[in-house]
Amino acid sequence: DLHTAYRRQRHMCIRDRINATNQGMDDQQLPLPLVVLQHLRPQQFVYDLIYQPLMTPFLLYAQRVGCQFCNGTGMLLWQGALAFKFWTGQSMPIDLVRKSLATEIRRRTK
Predict the structure, then answer these.
(1) What are the beta bridge partners of residue 68?
(2) FRET label pair with 93: which of 10, 14, 34, 109, CA 20 to 30 Å apart?
(3) Cα(24)–Cα(29) distance, rounded to whole angstroms?
(4) 3 φ/ψ angles, rounded to the nearest 5 degrees
(5) What's the pLDDT score for residue 98?
(6) CA 19, CA 14: separation in Å to the nearest integer?
């Protein structure tokens, strides 16, 4: 029917998919129903704000489809840098914090 065709077309026109929920952080839940995720295409970009685990069920699904994807570690790092600057008046040592962040996330994910 026309309504179903419209919904299918709408999903195909969306360029990016962003997960801003906590689903996938502590469990294997996907943030969207499979009926929506089945419309992902390789040309779409998928972003999950979660940074631990590094690969959430949402990102693993996007990877299988062939999408470009990113987790939330970059956002965590740069929000921290802005907060550090705000509260201390100094620049945060980005490279040092990036390495420490990656080490700590890997340690906690084991």
Answers:
(1) 45
(2) 109
(3) 5
(4) -65, -45
(5) 94
(6) 14
